[in-house]
Amino acid sequence: MRRSLALALLLGAAPVVVAAPALAQAPPATIGDRYIPAPWWMRDPVIASVGEVRVELQANRAFVSASFQSVDRSVAEASRAAADQVRALSQSLSAYGADKVRVETSVTTRPLYDQYRDENGVMRDNTRADRVARYQADASVNVTVRDVSLIERVYATIVASRPTSIGQVNFQLDPENSWKANLQAEAMKDARRRAEAAATNAGATLGRVKIIDPSGRVCQTDVLAGWPAYAAGGGQETTVDEMMVTGSRVNAPPPPRLAVRVPAPVAEMAGGAPSEAQIEAARLALQPPLQVMTDSACVIYGLN
Questions:
Q1: Signal sequence span per UniProt (predicted)?
Q2: Collapsing DSSP states into helix, strand and coil, what is residue 142?
Q3: Where are the beta strands (DSSP E) in the chain?
Q4: Which of 37, 82, 129, 279 is at a distance of 20 to 30 A from 136, taking alpha carbons?
Q5: What is the SS3 assignment for 262?
Q6: Which domains does the chain have, with CATH numbers?
Q7: Running DSSP on this structure, what letter comes out for residue 87?
């Protein structure tokens, strides 16, 4: 090596230096530079507009459950008694039709054993097959109200049936496809209104649509400033289609729930379906709450 370097100096030639390969680095985020790996739609002046829409809609689903309890020395009699209590109620609610009120019932049983005190005075169950004192049967009914205008009457019917306990009354918004389509359309319109106002205020005119992205990904800052080299990941490229349409929906947290428990003396077997007078006497005001639906859209326009 020394002889080669000395020979090069003697001959007046420049020494050759072999450099180690440099690590790949992110390109500079200069919009317009020919070698920036920017999306095709950023070659010309553009404006990114995010349209947003928010609407309050009444919850259109309600859920409530109740249970009936029966205790007997015979497992068959306990189950029959519990089933009799829930049968009349389920038949009354099923009369509305499955498209308005859906009813699910079930019956479970468990043994109740004789009890004794151990050497420490603690009461314990004598869990032996020959030490079963009685059987407890629990019949439950789960009700889904698809027509919320009936929720007050359905709930009053359950209360008038005198169950052992009544669960929470829950409301939920289950939007129809047409509602979601309308929200997306309004978000698109809002994006155009914002873009037109911004272009006019900046002394420009709106050009043709370049990208439609309701997910909002294209309008993020890391896309517009040095994408993809300056993205959060730092190295993964993302392919953006020329026309892409997706949607999203965010629901508000559920409202406070109503819980009711019937006192023990009232929890007796009902002889049949409650009367109209009993239903009206148990009627309470139950108004479905308003819940929020939102949607957004990102639209990229060219500028003239």
A1: 1-19
A2: strand
A3: 46-58, 61-72, 101-113, 115-117, 123-125, 132-145, 165-172, 206-213, 258-260, 290-303
A4: 279
A5: coil
A6: 32-57+176-249+296-303 (3.30.110), 58-173+254-286 (3.30.70.2970)
A7: H
